[in-house]
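Dear Dr. H.,

I hope your travels went smoothly. While you were away I took the liberty of generating a structure for the chain from your last submission, since the lab meeting agenda had it listed for discussion. I wanted you to have the full record in hand beforehand rather than looking at slides cold. The sequence, exactly as received, is reproduced here:
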Amino acid sequence: MLRFFVASILLCFFSTVWNSKSVAVADSELITCSGIVPMRYRNDKISITDFGGVGDGKTLNTKAFREAIYRIEHLRRTGGTLLYIPPGVYLTEAFNLTSHMTLYLARGAVIKATQDTQSWRLIAPLPSYGRGRELPGGRYISFIHGDGVRDVVITGENGTIDGQGDVWWNMWRQRTLLFTRPNLIEFVNSRNIIISNVIFRNSPFWNIHPVYSSHIVIRYVTILAPADSPNTDGIDPDSSSDVCIEDSFIATGDDLVAVKSGWDEYGIAYGRRSSDITIRRITGSSPFSGIAVGSETSGGVENVLAEHINLFNVGVGIHVKTNIGRGGVIRNITVSNVYMENARRGIKIAGDVGGHPDESFDPNALPVVKDVIIKNVWGVKVLQAGLIHGLKDSPFTGVCLSNINLRGDTRAGSRSPPPWTCSDVSGAARQVSPWPCSELSSSLQTNTCSSLF
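The corresponding predicted structure, in token form, is as follows:
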């Protein structure tokens, strides 16, 4: 893993040299959004061992975790309480967090999910999804869950939270799932959350899922799952605002970061957008997308900044995805200073991605995609530079590409697809190689891109 972080630093430096107008790495490292949620230090501290916790990897510690958190919730110490997890492997069923607490994992501490799937209780589907994301009906509660909580910190000395997801992945492959798999971490209707300095492994489904929440900081985390693990998205901010994701390594079986906001008619009815989201200094690999918006965007997504991103062995480097029936407005998306290596496609912006929850979606609910800026991107071994396909009755507008160089994979030979394919899109391109579609005019004076670059 060290080689990825070393590569991240070197590649950030390389992209800076390549683009004289980009901000120096030394300066960019000083830029952080993490101040939106100040770190809290707790005077009151308890240990899981005070409640009978045993870190032998065999003893079930569900009672210890629930009793410890019950104590935090009901004693309400001034400034909150820190729950310390010492070195050891603590097997447990799912548990709920409470407000004004810190879950602190020491170096060598592992909180490991039980693989007894019968012990996972069902909860209601999210209203903006109308059903479980995979199957009709409810969904299994996340391994570590927070609903309506405030002032929560999950941190430590790079201890591990392990979802032991292989049993769930196999159920998905064998089509024996009854309901939607559990996320590893989920915060619902919550605010002032910090997740930092923790390793997340083998999530059954999405790894970190803040939904209907605000003021979320996720920083210095490592998220790992096998490349063939299904739907193990890294971080999915969903109908949430003021989210800061920085300085992390993610290698999973699905999108590294995907900004969402609800699914078709349910997301339209719920009407809560994702906004003001910063994604910075992320390194990772995925067979799917590196940085993504969508495809569930029915509440709208706006004001997303992703910068200083390094991607290796990815399906699509930068992906904005939606579909008919989604509705919602995607706007003010900026992605800059990206290095990618060995990608099937560098950039994809498409209006035909993702399925529907049921047959009740409105085919006339068309998404709007506008003001998408992608600049300062360097890629090597990229099979296809880009694909931008809007919708005939809702063309994508203001797609602005600048200072992009996506080099093909010479091994592909005659099997290489055309470097760009485009339809139902307008915008502009400047200093892009290979040169993109004719739909993206080279003149910056005749469209909205002139003021956005």
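Two observations you may find useful: The CA atoms of residues 124 and 432 lie 47 Å apart. The helical segments are 2-18, 25-28, 62-75, 166-174, 264-270, 449-452.

With kind regards,
E. W.
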